[in-house]
Specification:
The structure is a single chain. By secondary structure, the chain is α+β, with helices and mostly antiparallel strands. A six-stranded antiparallel barrel has the order 4-5-11-8-7-12. A three-stranded parallel beta sheet has the order 1-2-3. It is built from six helices and 14 strands.
């Protein structure tokens, strides 16, 4: 596709990444007899998606039990699907306070923003889907901390612009100001911010939580790549050779062993490493 299609694709990825990092997920389970079981226990994608959102760090999950109208808003079937799904999410480490289950009909629009069907209202008194979304408290954004921005995309500016590189990503902490100096880790390269855009609009300041496109100068695509971390020269990030992590193991066939060589994938990059003594939870 052309530049327009690539630009639209980048926008879509930013929107998806923003939803993931803000900690919201919407799991739709299909509830006709056999459909849920096929998606969950017989090689379907519902269980796989639950595992993926856990590994992505999603903190809050809304389980939208869809098509419940096709069985007359059967409360027993809703509880069956809900209990089975939440039990698996609990096994992945989710706490009850991180989960909400909502019966809906996507085709009829029932219980999305309001509910009118007496088959549902006579037993369900919980939130609508939009109310469940509003129940999730937005995460705190550390705007006063040191600048950290993870680079998720690097591309050359389109023709007719000021030229140079554009870095896309999300500011995890701190703030970035147009015309400011920033440092690229691990290359230790100091570059200059020419302009900042968020949601397609130019801004002079971007803060923690903002997904941005940053035009820079004094940098080439050989010096900045996906997975690099942007900071401020006055507060460079510390470097370590050893760190401790909590690892969630799912469906693994090869056991983790002390001294074993592994590849650590982080921020789009792979790093050789090895395990030191392990401590089971």
């Amino acid at each position: 596709g052309g530049e327009g299609e690539r630009h639209h694709g980048r926008r879509s990825r930013y929107a998806l990444r923003h939803c993931e990092e803000e900690g919201h997920s919407f799991g739709c389970t299909w509830k006709k007899i056999g459909e849920f079981e096929n998606g969950f226990d017989r090689g379907g994608q519902t269980k796989e998606h639950a595992t993926l959102i856990r590994s992505l760090g999603v903190r809050n999950v809304i389980i939208a039990v869809n098509k419940l109208d096709t069985v007359g808003w059967d409360k027993k079937r809703f509880e069956e699907v809900s209990n089975h799904t939440t039990a698996y999410l609990h096994s992945l480490g989710y706490k009850p306070t991180q989960l909400q289950t909502v019966p809906v009909s996507g085709l009829k629009g029932e219980n999305l923003t309001d509910r009118k069907d007496v088959g549902l209202t006579h037993w369900y008194k919980g939130p609508t889907l939009t109310e469940a979304i509003d129940n999730i408290a937005p995460p705190k954004k550390p705007a006063d901390a040191a600048l950290i921005m993870i680079v998720s995309d690097v591309y050359k500016a389109s023709q007719g612009s000021t030229g140079g590189l554009t870095l896309a990503g999300k500011i995890e902490s701190g703030a970035m100001i147009a015309k400011d100096k920033i440092i690229v880790h691990p290359q230790q390269k100091v570059i200059t911010v020419k302009a900042i855009c968020t949601q397609g609009k130019p801004v002079t300041v971007a803060k923690a939580g903002d997904s941005v496109e940053v035009s820079v100068k004094d940098a080439t695509d050989d010096e900045v790549s996906i997975g690099c971390i942007i900071g401020h020269p006055s507060k460079p990030l510390p470097y370590v050779t050893e760190f401790k992590v909590k690892v969630l193991t799912l469906n693994y066939k090869i056991p983790l062993l002390a001294g074993q060589n592994v590849i650590v994938y982080s921020l789009g990059m792979g790093h050789p490493a090895y395990n030191i003594p392990l401590s089971p939870r």
